[in-house]
Amino acid sequence: MGKIGFGEAVKRGLKRHCPQCDSPTLFEGYLRVRPTCPVCGADNGRHRVDDIASYFTVLLMGHAVIAPALAVPFFWYIPLWASMAILLSALTAATLAALPFIKGGVIGALAAAGQPA
What we know:
This protein has one domain. Helix 1 (6-14) crosses helix 4 and helix 2 runs antiparallel to helix 4 (80-113). It has 4 helices and no strands. It has 117 residues and is mostly helical. The radius of gyration is 18 Å and the shape is elongated.
């Protein structure tokens, strides 16, 4: 297996693909990482992502959803219960949608950096 560039590995991970061979086999399910790639044999299970993917997801969603939500009262008047229901639903959906992709990107970054288990 040749060494791949950092940017390429992160880009592959963000697509939820194996950082080494770019096959769509990084995850077995929603967030469970496949221990070894069935195509190239890369040991993707050795990368400990732990909470960093969740941290990056919350940071991104805070800027992408919460910051614009603070501007809603200046442009559109709706009752507080309605705005909370809409914004919390949007925040939950966006967070759950982004988390696997961000986790893949972190795995790609760790694979490129050659972090041991």
